[in-house]
Design goal:
Region (Disordered): 396-427
Oligomer: single chain
CATH superfamily of the largest domain: P-loop containing nucleotide triphosphate hydrolases
Helix content: 40-55%
Distance between the termini: 40 Å
Strand order of the largest sheet: 2-1-3-6-7
Number of strands: 18
Domain Sigma-54 factor interaction: 137-366
Keywords: ATP-binding, DNA-binding, Nucleotide-binding, Phosphoprotein, Transcription, Transcription regulation
Number of helices: 19
Structural class: alpha/beta
Domain Response regulatory: 3-117
Organism: Desulfohalobium retbaense (strain ATCC 49708 / DSM 5692 / JCM 16813 / HR100)
Length: 480
């Protein structure tokens, strides 16, 4: 018997789903809001979650990683009344089992439920539990746990891996982590910086050359592909690989054989390929700068590293790890931290990601010297200035929006064809309760129209909580 959780504000749907699951001898519970659903996942273990997208207190896709990262790591099926292709793509990318549109036929829902639970049972019955070597990899967020799961899944194989992500997210570190957790861990890990390869020497650098093959070739030299024999070849910034060499390299990936420059015989190399880039290779394919067939070869497994701004809960453990390491290297006692120090770090956007964070922390460490506590004052001035400006700008915009919104709403509600006062009152005059409901609906409709349905701005202007706002919208039957 499995335990199933339904997170949906449609009471009739919840009853239908509970009836279906009980007939299949499963236990089922329901929650009408995201908050209730997340709380249920904290308090109990579930095998499967049916998740609605639009809920009174937010979008289900926004907390998908939190749901999948719950202690029971349930399978998730999206069940929504609004078919959104982009939303479906995002959901599948984040690991949902299926994406169903309401009203979904009972037969389809039953089939999806059964298949998802069968898959989960087979996955849990696997006897081999992978203990990952995550040396120097810090992350507690749900997005990082998803990355670790992919490493556990892919490291034992020899499949090619493509690692993507913004500059500074740790692509080489994750490539090494793949290598260190693979059967090739004792073999070489050879790094090729494709951005530094000159087009004239790229073939010689990768494949090696024979003595006298070209001017300056005074001796035989093995290329980096050969040096990776028995280990891992890591092509960093693969998007910079010259188009002229991409075709030749495609054959190397297929055959694991190549011919050094000036050699008549082919040489074999047994390596695993891991490539990384901060570029959109699909866009480069469209522009003719990257071969599509090479992209297909590289992307057997794909690990997309999240930027630091999307996993703010990892900032503090990353900072503590790095600073403790600095104290150890400089033989200093472990430092303490003022609350404002981490608050400032959390308020910054980190466009340079983890690399920038570590650079800033090193500067703060040097500024603190032998002082026992790190304060926000020790952080670089440019970081503090940007955080302060952003905070002030946000505060000013919030106050301005609230003031302007109140003035426009008041003007809209009190204006009419018969004058400022008469426009408020419909004719004939309704009972006070009906009039209050009418004005409430007009206020909400104007607010949604004025903000172009920007939820954040709506909540700032109205002063309502997210759940209260959605409850009022539902009460008045307003769609947007």
């Amino acid at each position: 018997m499995a335990k199933i959780l339904i997170i949906d504000d449609d009471a009739q749907l919840c009853e239908t789903m509970q009836s279906l699951t009980s007939r299949l001898n499963h236990e089922c519970q329901s929650a009408q809001t995201l908050h209730e659903g997340l709380q249920a996942l904290k308090n109990d273990d579930y095998d499967l979650v049916f998740l609605d997208v639009r809920l009174p207190d937010g979008n289900g896709l926004d907390v998908l990683q939190d749901i999948k990262g719950a202690r029971s790591q349930p399978e998730v099926v999206i069940l929504t009344g609004q078919g959104d292709p982009d939303g479906a793509e995002l959901a599948i990318q984040r690991g949902v089992w299926d994406y169903l549109i309401k009203p979904s036929p009972i037969k389809q829902t039953k089939l999806t439920l059964t298949r998802a639970l069968t898959y989960r049972e087979e996955k849990q019955n696997k006897s081999n539990v992978v203990a990952l070597n995550l040396e120097n990899v810090i992350g507690r967020s749900a997005k990082m746990k998803a990355c670790f799961d992919l490493i556990a899944q892919g490291a034992p194989s020899d499949s090619n891996v493509l690692i993507t992500g913004e500059t500074g997210t740790g692509k080489e570190l994750f490539a090494r982590t793949f290598h260190n957790n693979s059967p090739r861990a004792k073999g070489p890990f050879v790094v090729v910086d494709c951005a530094s390869l000159t087009e004239s020497l790229v073939e010689s650098t990768l494949f090696g050359h024979k003595k006298g093959a070209f001017t300056g070739a005074q001796e035989d030299r093995d290329g980096l592909v050969k040096l990776a024999h028995g280990g891992t070849l890591f092509l960093d910034e693969i998007g910079e690989l010259p188009l002229s060499i991409q075709k030749a390299f495609l054959r190397v990936l297929q055959e694991r054989r190549f011919r050094p420059v000036g050699e008549t015989k082919e040489v074999q190399s047994d390596f695993r390929l891991i490539a990384a880039t901060n570029k959109d290779l699909a866009a480069l394919v469209e522009s003719g700068e990257f071969r599509q067939d090479l992209l297909f070869r590289l992307k057997t497994m794909h690990l997309d590293l999240p930027p630091l701004r999307e996993r703010p809960e990892d900032i503090k453990p990353l900072a503590m790890y790095f600073l403790d390491k600095m104290c150890e290297e400089h033989k200093l006692p472990t430092k303490g931290y003022d609350a404002d120090f981490f608050a400032t770090l959390a308020a910054y956007g980190w466009p340079g990601n983890v690399r920038e964070l570590f650079n800033v922390l090193e500067r703060a460490f040097v500024a603190a010297g032998e002082e026992q506590t790190l304060y926000a004052m020790h952080l670089p001035q440019d970081i503090r200035i940007k955080v302060t400006k952003a905070t002030l700008r946000q505060s000013c915009q919030s106050n301005s929006s609230k003031s302007q919104g109140a003035m426009e709403a008041a003007k809209d509600l009190t204006s009419g064809p018969s004058g400022p006062q008469d426009g408020v009152f419909p004719s004939p005059l309704p009972p006070l309760k009906e009039f209050r409901a009418l004005m409430e609906r007009r206020y909400l409709e104007h607010l949604i129209r004025m903000t172009e349905a920007d939820i954040k701005e709506i909540l700032e202007i109205s002063g309502l909580s997210r759940s209260h706002f959605y409850a009022m919208v539902k009460k008045h039957g307003i769609t947007f």
